[in-house]
Amino acid sequence: MTNQSSVEKPKDLVVSPPPQITGTMSKNRVMAYTFVALMIITIVTAALWWPAMTPTEAQVAAFAEAGITGLISMPLGAILLINALVAVGVAVLSDFIIGKAAADSEINTLSAAVFGLIVTLCYSLGVPVMGGRAEMLPVQSLSAPGCFIYVAIISFIGLVVFKKVQGVAGRKFVNPAATAKLLVLLPALFSVFLIKEHWAPAAEGGVEMPVLASNLSGLYGSFRTYLQGCYSSPMLSEPSSFESVMLLNKFHGWPGGASSIVVIIVGVALIFLLRNYFKWKITATYFGSVTVMSLIMTGVFGGDPMTRLMFELFIGSSIFLGFFMATDPATTPYTGTGQIIFGVGLGVLTVLIQTFMNFFGGALLALVIMNLTVPLLDRIGIHKPFGR
Fold this sequence. Notes:
There is one protein chain. By secondary structure, the protein is mainly α. The chain has one domain (25-376): Orthogonal Bundle (Ammonium transporter fold). Helix content is 56%, strand content 2%. It has 17 helices and 4 strands. Helix 3 (76-101) runs antiparallel to helix 4 (109-121). The chain is globular, with a radius of gyration of 22 Å.
């Protein structure tokens, strides 16, 4: 008769957080490739941004008149590198402490480092050349030393709350970096995202930004001219060409999308290296739907279709998010059909938010909204086991 006590009990089932990688490509290798890709973008952007001193002497003087002091004028590239050190350091240290304090929490240094770089590259930096309306702009958060504090807070909250705590539920429902950024900047929501005075004349306290829900060639000049003035180097007496600004180097906004060409090259290379694990369907359908929506908006409001299209595709938030945030394995659909629907919905929402809210970072808000639909999208395209 078999001794009951000698029967080996089954081991507890341990499920690791996504992505669940099997085969020759391990999770650590995926994270390592992603980290290298993000580091390339960070270093190239820092090199491109290094000649630009921000804020400029003229901007510092203008800000002082508006009562804004304490800013540090230094190379924009240096500010970016310090931001990267701060965000990665906070994320890795927080991950290590939680891993040591909680027995059921895995220490994943590479994943934390990748998260820190994403926080760095999706955080807006640099005061626009056209940023004369200091009281209307979040100048402290765009410049040193204030940006270092904001990045540290976003990295900490994102890692602790939206990666670790959210992961306890078995899956992550929203992108940690995107949600943490929106949460931290929530007190400045009116002044950053929804400024109704964006399109008002300076005499009425506005910043004279063209309304996106128009033909983009309104009363205060064309949208193309506005973008040249907003994103050109502050060290130039004349703004760069529109195509150069949108494709090669934007000196304001998301560092991850400062050079659209660099993001495309690095993103495509990463897709090739991780072709069996990278959710490229989301990237492809996102950019495809953004293109279609841009043409629809041009048909509705008129104007130059190329200006609107290049803005929607190559604004820093759009190009970087499409490759490196929208494809997050933990907060996006598992099935191919779900990924296609997710990418289309993300593109449609991005253009609608940017057009009717005049919010240049509409992709970030659209991503969080689409993340909440993932549990439903995961039910689409799942094949039932044979015989059931």
